[in-house]
Amino acid sequence: MEWKNEYSVGILEIDDQHKLLLRSFTTVEESIKLGEGWSNTHYAILELNQLARMHFTFEEAIMHMFGYPEAEAHKKEHQHFFIRMANIERHSLKKSAEVEMVQFLRGWLTSHILGSDRGYAEHIFAGAQVVRSNHDSLIHTD
User: CA angle at residue 79 from 52 to 93, to 5 degrees?
Assistant: First the structure.
């Protein structure tokens, strides 16, 4: 699965992370296609999960920082991703699970990037301000 310009959300760091996720997915997909065995495929899945955790944490921090109103729904999509990945990982010794995994990942990554991720990027580009902390609560006077 290759990066396409249409996947860009317009935020360099997010786009770079999406590119890493797509490359990691491609490693999983190629491992399955080449029949490299459970060990290589499992390692590729673990790497993809690790990259996804890092990326989702980063995204969720940005959404919180800019007060994105759909942040909780977006976070639930991330949680759903990991639930599905855990199920797929447990069952990936079966050939059918490998096909299911590739189909799920390909569909999820593209629809999430093209849909949900665009939402918070558009929120930011529409002029969202960084949510400021209440300075009064940070100052202690005795």
Answer: 70
